[in-house]
Amino acid sequence: MGTFKAIVVTKDDGGTRAAYADFDEAELMDGDVTVRVTHSTLNYKDGLAITGRAPVVRRFPMIPGIDFAGTVEESRHPDFAPGDAVVLNGWGAGETHLGAYGEKARVKGDWLIPLPQGLTAAEAMAIGTAGYTAMLAVLALERHGLSPADGPAVVTGAAGGVGSVAIALLAKAGWHVVASTGRTQETGYLEGLGAAEVIDRSELAGPVRPLAKERWSAGIDSVGSTTLANVLSMTRYHGAIAACGLAGGMDLPSSVAPFILRGVALLGVDSVYCPKPRRLEAWARMARDLDRAKLAAMTTTIPFERVIDVAPDILAGKVRGRIVVDMG
Ligand code: NDP
Fold this sequence. Notes:
alpha/beta, Quinone Oxidoreductase, Chain A, domain 1, Rossmann fold, seven-stranded mixed β-sheet, six-stranded parallel β-sheet, 29% helix, binds NADPH dihydro-nicotinamide-adenine-dinucleotide phosphate, NAD(P)-bd_dom_sf, ADH-like_N, MDR family oxidoreductase, Zn-ADH-like_protein
């Protein structure tokens, strides 16, 4: 056993600190599959973990990073053998279990899925947890019975990771997509992904009325707070909004009016402990439906060595689309 390169988050009286270090392989946590990590990503939650801005990390020392793609090195799990290409999202990786920002990871085989057919490891991480969550949100809207025939779909945090993938997926499914962004200079980018309309997010940032003019039948919200409250108040009769994020805040200053007067539904989306069958469904659908040229257009690749430097940018809303981390 040797060491491998990793980002390690430690904690002392001054708070938490993330730094590159050589991690002792003997210190890897329990798991029946050891993976050589080839690619990871930078999600909003990874930004929180690295900067320590929210208590994402629950164990110290921690290797942060909530998702990876890689190749199995050793396995005692019946579904996986050395050489298999695999993907991991969530299950506490980077929070309670040593995560993705290391050259090696040891995890439960039950947490892994095979690299979806038709995707490279780099593409799987261009999608990453943000993209897979966008797909879970689309599936939630469809399970609710909504379709493009019901009216437009709004996407908040449009130029971010979840938002960018959500636009591409909804547009592909035939929705008229209204993209809400604070970066209207990215209108060309958002239209390229499939947005039919781009609105300034300030339209959703004002005082929340119990009910406002009906504008959309469906939505995918990664912002939360006042934005989500306004989105709900503008949702058409019997529409639904899938809520997955808190980039604008954890609160929800809404009223019951949209629910009891318009029959609007708020659909919660969690990617971390989502059961495996639904994960497999989401990844298979993404491999089938996500336009690879659009995926490439929303993706920036950085080397592993830059992750700590770039982490604050995602919290500042400066990252456009998705970031792939090439582990080298
Ligand atoms: P990004 O930072 O890539 O995207 C968030 C976007 O939200 C930004 O790009 C920006 O879009 C907008 N935004 C940022 N700050 C504010 C603000 N203060 N007010 C209004 N809008 C804001 O993050 P991700 O796409 O990776 O994640 C988005 C959210 O979804 C995060 O909160 C994340 O934790 C959550 N998430 C939840 C998951 C789950 O399992 N439920 C899984 C994955 C993500 P623009 O510039 O276009 O306005």
